[in-house]
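Q: Sequence in, structure out?
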Amino acid sequence: MAFRASLVAALALAGVGFLLFSLAHQALDQTRASPLNAWLALLASLAASLSPALLLESSVGGGATVALALALALLVCWFPGEGSQARSWLGLGAGLGLLLAESPVLAAAAILALVVQRGVLRSVLPERSVGLLAAGLGGGALLVLLPVLLRPLAPTSWVGIGLVHSFGEIRALDVLALRGRGLGAWMHQVGPIAFLLSCAGAVLGWLRPSLRGVAAPLLVPLVLDALIPARSSGLLTPDPLGALRMFSLCGASTLAVFAIQGVALFLWNLALPLVRPAGVLAVAFYAALVAAVAEEGSSQADRSRNAGAEAWTDQAFELLPPASLILARSDTILWRLWAARLASGMRPDITVVPSSFLSHGTLAGALLQEEPSLASLLRDISATGTPSEFSLSTVADVRPLFLEIDPQGDRKIASHTASESLWLRFAPQPYGPSDRRLGRTAATTAFYRVVGAARRNEPHDEATLEVLALHARNLAVASALLHDRDSTQLALDQLAALRRNPTPDDPLWDIIDPQRKAPLRGRHSRR
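A: Exactly. Output:
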């Protein structure tokens, strides 16, 4: 199932590469027909389609590559001088309707790009063409909304293609990350020289009338990418601007070959010695940059070398007792557990209770049917948002219970917890200090085993390290509530080993050190 879902995104990336090659080739041929144009168009296609951002997006189900392929198909089909027939207007409108359902942000950028193109070419649309365009747009939107109109009460009536699945969704939700821009990614991948080539290609494309009709729509995503600031958000949260960032990468790679063609043709026409080899070296230089981008992209997209997620699954999921029950507060943990079960059918005997999703649909009823002892726990969560000591003890009497403790929880609940593997196990009776010490030793071994697996290869598995940071914070909260200095120091040492020390304004310090004194500096735990 996971392979079939990611195959759609991979095929869409192949379509992106082909469409970008066609667009660049047609634009270069309008300037001057030359055998070099095909090679330059190929370099533009590879520079974008083999970049780390697009390769990573194409390795998961859905993704922005589907929407990006639709946007590029509209630009290719609506190349300057084409698309004058009525059916072309209908097709353009239908494509925009599908793109609007796939990615509203990219659809807005594509519409703006087409409007800018028509404005640059000084072409006014007749009223009949506008009507056909609107009819095609309405027909495409109606096609996507048809399940909702026919079966509005069905649980899966909304298609929602591409609005849910993307690469960002498999990253940690609770840890904030700064989203980057497509221009920043392009400069990081190919360097400042190639970025200057893109800028020169943009200027050249704007000055040349033969390239203006193609360069103008490609400049639109670049300008929007530069104007829209990067935002701080969860790593698991899908970035609604991800498709726009990738559209800007495609535009930058295409504009760069405009500059390369201009440099090569200028040197080729000079009657000076060694200028023709210099033109060949300019093309070879850009080809070397594209090869470097492809190598970096393949290294980042190759998850087979990254064993961090598998090691975490083995320690945190596979080794749990039979018929265990997990009360997860963090969406990070939930996505990990659900991904392991979806991809490989792992541990079907374990029940996962997502406290943040209990109000969605009939999830609470399904959980209650599976485990009747959850009645009081589900009632407490729905009423107060947190379970009580009694409801947790009721579940722990029936099944092994593992949980993420509430940062605002009380000391009574924390007294029932002890470290086991990477979790806090809740027992019906309070644990003693010796029991916590025994579980803490085994949990430390499991923790650093997963850290070693996540850092075994380059680049490190940052997503797994973020999940481990959540485990460490969970241990720090429980230990601080119990005034267990050794366990609290151990949790802080684990965060330090992950290079994720809590900042001075971190709410974690309100629990560890309510008086806001200096951080704990006791003896370091043995690793």
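Strands lie at 176-178, 232-234, 325-328, 351-354, 401-403, 417-420, 423-426.
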